[in-house]
Amino acid sequence: MAMRGEFSSRIGFILAAAGSAVGLGNIWGFPTQVASNGGAAFVLVYLLLAFVLAYPVLMAELIIGRANRANMVDALGNISNHAAGRLTGIWGCVTVSLILAFYAIVGGWMLAYFADAGVSLAGATQASQWLLAFSDTRNILFCAGFLMLTSFIVLGGVKAGIEKWSVRLMPTLVIIIVALIIYVSFQPGAVEGWSAYLVPDFSRVLDPELLISAMGQAFFSMSLGVGTMLVYGSYVSKDENLPAIGASVALVDIGVAIIAGMLIIPAMYVALNNGVEIFAADGALIAGDKLIFTVLPALFDTIGAAGLFVAMAFFALMVIAAVTSSISMLEVPVAYLVESRGIARKRAVWVMTTLIFLCSCIIILNFETLFGVVIKATTEWSQPLLGLALCVFAGWVWRRDAILTELKSGYPDVEASVFWKIWPWYVRFVCPVIIAVMFVRSVM
């Protein structure tokens, strides 16, 4: 068996795992949810749920991964000594591959808009028109480009690929966000945006809809349930204190989501001040892809000459956020092919990239029918159920003493800690119930 990779430093792991967690959802989903769900009240509920629900599941993935030093299929197979474990692992690999198939399409759009800011600076109007037109050719070409970027990093393995690039890309992401926040805050209209984001409307805190969206956001923003954190956990040194390292990942992820809000919401109100429509027909703030591809580009157009540079910086930020997530997704099936099937890493990366690209092409060519369906099936149905399955494996199937031994290797006094007093029964009883209730609500 080939030597398994390992993260060379704690900061390398934290930035890679946080990069996996920080994706487009943090930047385009989180801010608009905050602004339309009672401002800072939503942030408080989200913070609470991130630690009450997402952190325990994150810990389950990290512990299972590191204890078994294996991909998702083998790790769950080892814990359960049963085909059910391996099947759950394969289901995770399929889900994450499908998520990457639609994610790469969106990542491709970000690349196209980034390229557009570049060609517009050069004054190439025709190229710009082609880049902004929603055509199958453009979508397929840029999706391929995005997947090539992703596979280039994953080819390097853990240390020379994932860690090396996460340590460069994550600080760059934060620097770009902060620079854009400073720029936007000085534009007319930004103050109203800051108040929409930071002033809490506490009457909304117990609204079940708010609770459900905050919980969904916490769960999906940490990319849980699909094995990314399990695989990254399997590359962590045995000397590391897992509860502390998991808390750091959760904090970086939440931190980026919150500073993304400090950029997006004031930017929307600056756009409103410049005559751009930011509210949908039902009075809610425009969110998701419409926000990124309609509202913000319209804002960049109204700023004048500086607008192109701001647009370029913004779409560079979106590409980085997308790539740090996509590398962790690709690593899940690649790790399985390398370790379980004995395929060389290089070949495994190209096999998976090709399969995922074919799925992306099928989605692009049947965009109206498939795009929304694939997103719903993977993120709203499959991901919570996988999270539930992981709680069952960590809470019921895997022996308590084995978990304790694993935690002690990097944290000898763990038995006396608050973490050990709460987490085992919590992941056993509380998490599965909350996830199940949420799942039923979202399906109904």
TrEMBL record:
Coiled coil: none annotated. It comes from the Bacteria. InterPro entries: Na/ntran_symport (IPR000175), SNS_sf (IPR037272), YocR/YhdH-like (IPR047218). GO terms for cellular component: membrane. It is a multi-pass membrane protein. Pfam families: SNF. This is Sodium-dependent transporter. The chain crosses the membrane at residues 39-64, 84-106, 139-158, 170-190, 210-232, 244-272, 307-329, 349-374, 381-398, 418-440. It is found in: Membrane. Keywords: Membrane, Transmembrane, Transmembrane helix, Transport. Its main location: membrane.
